[in-house]
């Protein structure tokens, strides 16, 4: 057992990749001690729209519940509902972290490259991420390759803090999640489907209407080879469609193309599968979003459960560093 922590950032509306590659798996494999975080504080490290940020957080929370995360068993909450706790520990950890460590993060280098105005939060968000992890005593953090370095930082900060001031934090470990599908952009199949791509036909959002989903999939980029074959390097577009179809139906993408003859059939088969996969999720999500009282009740429940976990550890940390 132990505590696993997983999060979804609200830098945009949740998409098919987030659902197939992460949320669906989290819901399917949840244990009572799991912590799920809607990371809205992380949704403002670059230019953002306040109204949308709030909306994306509500949507992401609704998505977790609609996907089957059980708010009575797991701790599922919106990060900004505990903004004081996360903010306070972030400051303490920023004073545990060096500037050199923060500026070496590959994600920072990549995301700040070529930008003339970089928010300081883009530099320090890995420390906020460390606070997210350490507040809840998470010992395992399932992350992909791109986030591994941040979990290593959280680990280093926990060790350094414990060594300097006393054993307050559980030292977390990054674990490779069970391989989920890595979904690519439908229009540019060599890059991953991403929230930050914005409104493009290449990104299918969980809340898109069935009509829109269908149109986006039917416009998916393929190639001129005219063979339905799983070969991500040579045929990224076709392989992505097979990957999506495989993930929707639980069959390996290598096997699933056998009965499909042309690209037209492939696109329409995938369109049907995605529409049917998302339909119940979107319906439950919409129900929740249309019932703000119920959504707020679940949100308050999650925040309460999260605070019960976070407060003792935060207080212990403040005490040993000499605050309060
Ligand atoms: N394209 C994807 N295919 C499969 N899984 C994906 N995830 C993200 N994109 C894909 C997984 O979704 C979970 C939540 O992701 P996140 O909110 O932490 O954001 P991210 O990984 O940075 O990806 P996004 O959604 O594309 O956002 P932006 O554009 O802001 O970077 C994670 O488990 C992630 O692996």
TrEMBL record:
Pfam families: tRNA-synt_1b. Its EC number is 6.1.1.2. The keyword ATP-binding applies. Signal peptide: none annotated. GO terms for molecular function: tryptophan-tRNA ligase activity. Coiled coil: none annotated. Keywords: Aminoacyl-tRNA synthetase, ATP-binding, Ligase, Nucleotide-binding, Protein biosynthesis. InterPro entries: aa-tRNA-synth_Ic (IPR002305), Rossmann-like_a/b/a_fold (IPR014729), Trp-tRNA-ligase (IPR002306), Trp-tRNA_synthetase (IPR050203). Belongs to the class-I aminoacyl-tRNA synthetase family. This is Tryptophan--tRNA ligase.
């Amino acid at each position: 057992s132990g505590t696993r922590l997983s999060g979804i950032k609200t830098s945009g509306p949740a998409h098919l990749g987030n659902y197939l590659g992460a949320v669906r798996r989290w819901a399917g494999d949840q244990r009572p001690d799991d912590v799920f975080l809607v990371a809205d504080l992380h949704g403002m490290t670059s230019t953002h729209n306040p109204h949308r940020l709030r909306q994306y957080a509500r949507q992401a929370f609704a998505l977790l519940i609609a996907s089957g995360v059980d708010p009575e068993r797991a701790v599922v909450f919106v990060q900004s509902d505990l903004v004081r706790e996360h903010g306070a520990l972030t400051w303490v950890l920023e004073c545990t972290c060096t500037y050199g460590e923060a500026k070496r993060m590959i994600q920072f280098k990549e995301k700040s490259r070529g930008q003339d105005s970089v928010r300081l939060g883009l530099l320090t968000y890995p420390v906020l991420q460390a606070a997210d992890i350490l507040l809840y005593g998470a010992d395992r953090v399932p992350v992909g390759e791109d986030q591994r370095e941040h979990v290593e930082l959280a680990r280093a900060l926990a060790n350094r803090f414990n060594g300097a001031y006393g054993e307050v934090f559980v030292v977390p470990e990054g674990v490779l999640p069970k391989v989920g599908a890595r979904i690519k952009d439908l229009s540019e199949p060599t890059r991953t489907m991403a929230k930050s791509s914005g409104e493009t036909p290449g990104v299918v959002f969980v809340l898109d209407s069935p009509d829109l989903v269908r149109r986006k999939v039917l416009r998916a980029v393929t190639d001129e080879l005219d063979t339905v074959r799983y070969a991500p390097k040579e045929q990224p577009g076709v392989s992505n469609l097979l990957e999506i179809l495989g993930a929707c139906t639980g069959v390996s993408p290598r096997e699933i193309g056998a009965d499909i003859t042309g690209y037209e059939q492939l696109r329409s088969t995938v369109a049907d599968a995605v529409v049917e996969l998302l339909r119940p999720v979107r319906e439950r999500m919409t129900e929740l979003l249309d019932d703000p009282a119920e959504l707020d009740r679940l949100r308050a429940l999650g925040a309460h459960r999260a605070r019960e976990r976070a407060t003792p550890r935060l207080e212990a940390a403040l005490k040993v560093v000499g605050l309060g």
